[in-house]
Amino acid sequence: MAFPALERSGLLACARETLGALPNGFYGLDTILIDAVLRALAGQARAEGATRFTPQDLGRILGLDRAPEVKTIRRKIGRLAETGKAAELIAALAAHHLHAAGPGGENLAAVLYVDGHVRAYQGTKKIGKLYSTRLKFPVPATEETWVSDAHGSPVLLVMADPGASLASELRRILPELRTIIGDSRRVLVGFDRGGWSPALFAHMAAQGFDVLTWRKGKTEDIDASLFTEVSHTDGHGETRSWPVADTLVDLPLAGSKTTGEVFQTRQITRTVPTAGGATRQIHILTTDHDLPAGEAVYRMGARWRQENQFRYARMHFDLDSHDSYTSVDDDPDRMVPNPAKATAYQRVVAAKKHFTDIAADTDAALLTLHTPPPGTTGLILTNAMVNAIEAPRWEAEAALDAVEAAHKSLPARVRLGDLPPASRWRTPGRNSSTTESAWPPTTR
Question: The whole model's pTM is what?
Answer without folding.
Answer: 0.77
